Known about the structure:
Number of domains: 1
Order of helices and strands: EHEHEHEEHHEHEHEHHEHHHHEE
Largest sheet: 5 strands, parallel
CATH class: Alpha Beta
Number of helices: 13
Shape: globular
CATH topology: putative 2-phosphosulfolactate phosphatase
Number of strands: 11
Distance between the termini: 30 Å
Amino acid sequence: xxxxxxxxxxxxxxxxxxxxxxxxxxxxxxxxxxxxxxxxxxxxxxxxxxxxxxxxxxxxxxxxxxxxxxxxxxxxxxxxxxxxxxxxxxxxxxxxxxxxxxxxxxxxxxxxxxxxxxxxxxxxxxxxxxxxxxxxxxxxxxxxxxxxxxxxxxxxxxxxxxxxxxxxxxxxxxxxxxxxxxxxxxxxxxxxxxxxxxxxxxxxxxxxxxxxxxxxxxxxxxxxxxxxxxxxxxxxxxxxxxxxxxxxxxxxx
Length: 253
């Protein structure tokens, strides 16, 4: 069986997925700092589901239909406030440390972020979509080994419209872990770039995350700096959330 593995680094690349046949493709989406790390943490702490939406108006429309949902998200790294919504303060930002059990247990969270939620939406036509982070990397690898999809697409959320170094590191870590499944097939050069980045920082993930633009920005803010070390933790959670047919992220086990 012919296989392929590819990494997409920027929003322009994942926006183009609408033109591709993804019926035999599995996608793993990484937005390490911080959307996918926050989603995984929320579900680990008992959230019922996370609904990724691209825009603030979409999130507000969900809240209007169902007042019990929690609104979460960021613009420019900060929690969405009344100035951006016309008066509604979001319940949560995009720090995984906010998604504690007493806030999220049993709740559905509607989340909009600059890039991560857009990346998940772009992957909807794929046969499988997993939400990945360093926090659950081994669980994602286990899911891939179980399904063994013919084509694997590793989708990096990026930052604004550009690549994000921390997502490239996670992509490289994943590609290394599943290398034996895809090395005999088509391996695109983007995979080699991600692997090179990962090999340089595999022994100190937190330093790697902190060296990129997003990491430096978070480290410069005292209230957010601990997000970098949190998101660098490997395998804190042993499950791989999936995006279902209704475009909702759930924990299946």
